[in-house]
Design brief:
Chain lengths: ~200, ~80
């Protein structure tokens, strides 16, 4: 997982020229479950409403029926676009781990454009937290990266144990470089993790 | 009948416009790293850009059919 890619074709804003992308990830898919279920519930409720309307002749008058049509269309499309918005947001929230920094790029479609990064050499502590059976079963959780004056919390980290190990390994690997005595060349190929 | 088709077409155009607006907003915000790559360690790795585009096209089609169905049922 932490194989450096010297000729990597991917790029991201805020990347230094000598930074090598080791790996990157988005939040766990469970983050999309809530919006997905909400969309399904809305759709089922609307379908039931239409079925009731056609069954019991509640909307016998043309005017009432058309107002219902307008309302049903609006709420159906609202449910769809609300989910779509969350779905796009999932792809716009990326954590990038390079040999020098850990970047959190968090955007929304219209209103947010955040970029927070933390220097690997400045990392003082790394915490991993998984609470409850769902987080432990699906292997996701929160990583807390502490530096001298800042804390970076990364929620819904998928396969958290591997990421945690990789960051710990990176910190141990990076620490001697800060003193100018590199113990390991980050551009040299390292054994690839078979996952 | 004219009113029915006019309203239906306006509704369908609104759906396509909303889908397109969201898609282009996403395109303008997405960075190349938003999508699966060799170093991607996410839990949803199968969504390449082409697959995502296909999925959104399908979603638009489903929405168009659903709105047309609503019109035919309730007009």
């Amino acid at each position: 997982m932490v194989t450096p890619m010297p000729d990597i074709a991917i790029d991201f804003p805020g990347r230094d020229r000598d930074e090598l992308v080791l790996f990157y990830f988005r939040q766990h898919w469970i983050r999309l479950l809530g919006p997905f279920l909400r969309m399904i519930v809305w759709t089922v409720v609307l379908a039931a409403g239409i079925w009731l309307l056609t069954l019991i002749d509640l909307a016998d008058q043309t005017g009432t029926r058309r107002i219902m049509l307008l309302l049903f269309s609006f709420f159906f499309l609202y449910a769809q676009f609300d989910f779509l918005n969350e779905f796009y947001r999932h792809f716009l929230h990326v954590i990038v781990v390079t040999n020098r920094k850990i970047h959190r790029i968090k955007k929304t479609l219209f209103f947010t454009d955040d970029h927070q990064s933390i220097n690997v050499s400045a990392l003082q502590d790394v915490h991993k937290s998984q609470h409850g059976p769902v987080q432990n079963l699906l292997a996701f959780g929160t990583l807390t990266l502490e530096a001298q004056e800042s804390v970076l919390r990364i929620h819904f980290v998928p396969d958290i144990q591997r990421k945690y190990n990789a960051i710990l390994h990176l910190r141990g690997w990076e620490a001697p470089r800060a003193n100018g005595t590199p113990s390991h060349d980050p551009t040299s190929p390292r054994p690839r993790d078979n996952r | 009948m004219f009113a029915f088709f006019t309203t239906l077409i306006i509704a369908e155009i609104t759906v396509v416009a909303a889908e397109a607006a969201l898609w282009f907003a996403f395109r303008s915000k997405a960075v190349p790293i938003s999508f699966p790559h060799e170093t991607d360690a996410s839990s949803l790795r199968s969504f390449t850009f082409a697959r995502l585009r296909l999925l959104i096209a399908l979603h638009t089609l489903v929405c168009l059919i659903a709105v047309a169905l609503l019109f035919f049922l309730l007009w």
